[in-house]
Model the fold of this input.
Amino acid sequence: MSETGRPSVLIVEDESALCTLLRYNLEREGYRVFEARNGDEALVVAAESSPDLIVLDWMLPELSGIEVCRRLRARGESRNVPIIMLTARGEETDRIRGLDTGADDYIVKPFSMSEFLARSRAVMRRVRPGLVEDVIALGDINMDRVNHRVHRGTRELHLGPTEYRILERLMQNPGRVFSREQLLDTVWGTEVYVEARTVDVHIGRLRKTLNQSGERDPIRTVRSAGYSFDETFAN
Amino acid sequence: MSETGRPSVLIVEDESALCTLLRYNLEREGYRVFEARNGDEALVVAAESSPDLIVLDWMLPELSGIEVCRRLRARGESRNVPIIMLTARGEETDRIRGLDTGADDYIVKPFSMSEFLARSRAVMRRVRPGLVEDVIALGDINMDRVNHRVHRGTRELHLGPTEYRILERLMQNPGRVFSREQLLDTVWGTEVYVEARTVDVHIGRLRKTLNQSGERDPIRTVRSAGYSFDETFAN
DNA sequence: GAATCCCGTCATTAATCTGTTATATTGAGA
DNA sequence: TCTCAATATAACAGATTAATGACGGGATTC
Done:
């Protein structure tokens, strides 16, 4: 079963060795990793997997890194995804600095892995606080992702693995509506085939545990669209 | 993903072999390790990862160790981070001693790993008490890491090496859930290949010894996630 | 060198979770 | 208010996951 609720990264890099190294280290840090070998592939994978962060090599065969960057920025889905550029020393460094490429940060090769990881974390924290935050607190609901504990007020909740992950996903993006299909993709993973209605059942179970004592339901059903964590609940 | 509750160290060292050695041993001790190859990188990584301790080579290409030290001290974020200097024998030793470099301690190369770890622990104990204590006491369980003795109440427990290390790892971070893979990495090491389920067996053995007299079980199983030392047990 | 201890694996059992389906309920639009 | 599609819920069987006991081999100790 694929682990989810994790921040995901798309690596766009044609040099295979570097790619593997980055993947290894990012996965060690708890990221989910996608790869693309060239610009075209990058656009496809970005659209399909909608990563939380894109690491983009400046020098790519065919479509250049900067062009990929532009196209990603032009599309709705990927417009706000942070991008870290990898550049060789001296290679257009100043132009990158000056140009509005739309990249959020860039790193000059060769770079140390810890520097790279530190920057990734920094970018991620800035753009998606919920994704890398250790504890997420919304209203009287508190999820500690390090200790794997969920509290409503002082009451500790016992959630099954799937319920936990669904809640995690919803709380990471309060207010955002997830379709059943999206939840299946991110919570269950793309490999498994599960009936869409199954999501309803788990949402039901989650609600039951969440609202045991008759509290206000923090999960909003959006008819014919999906579910979301009610953002008005957080206040 | 940012891991908290774990002491972190930044190694600034251009000699790759030494760097690897230090990293290996520090990680074994439960530290989170960042690396930098030169002074500039050190400043960047220090700012981004805000380590609890910096191990700084005196001789660095470009920016010298002492200069890095000064700059770190000049900046708000890193002003109070303890620094351990690594120096070659005879190399400016007296001047370091005399100068107000801002370093907290220094070690002359070559040095024994246990001396290095002892000093790191000493510095860390000052800055992050609790994470590197010689004796860890949680509830009625007491682990003396110097004498390698574990007591539950007055009863001394006999643990095998592996059980001891697992318990150590768990007690260093009460509450934090470790996956089987993480435990394998930190307790067994990354080189050996061991079945993930083997962790279960050792946890079982640990529990058996821990709860001989029918006491409350301090180890929490988190289904499909791993194990943790129950932090509510400590109260 | 024998005895002991410790370890890793496996098979079995126990506990818990999961996906599906059938049925009830809800809600929006006619 | 009625209708119909969408959602909620309960129940169940099967699947996963964890706990436990047993065993052989290898290391360690005396």
The longest helix of chain B spans residues 113-127. Chain B touches chain A at residues 1-5, 10, 33-37, 41, 44-45, 48-49, 175-177, 222-225, 228, 231 (CB under 8 Å). Helices of chain B lie at 16-28, 39-49, 65-74, 93-98, 113-127, 161-172, 180-188, 197-210.
